[in-house]
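# step 3/5: fold
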Amino acid sequence: MAHLTHAGHAPVIWTGRAREMVEVLRHRIARRRVYRQSLRELRALPNRALADLGLNRSTLRRAALEAAYGRDADQV
């Protein structure tokens, strides 16, 4: 039967990877919040205000995506 006598650096590597995964998740959650807040605010505007911004109801999601993720929103 095999016995583990040395665990090596596995816990340290896992800790680093876990931190990295948590940071990525936090970043994604923050961007998603920006998207949802932007969409909520845009949907609350009357059509005239949207027209002044060069938007209409069919372009609100795209505008909110660009606010949260930048011009590369297609890659989200």
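# step 4/5: annotate
The chain has a mean pLDDT of 86.
# step 5/5: archive (pending)
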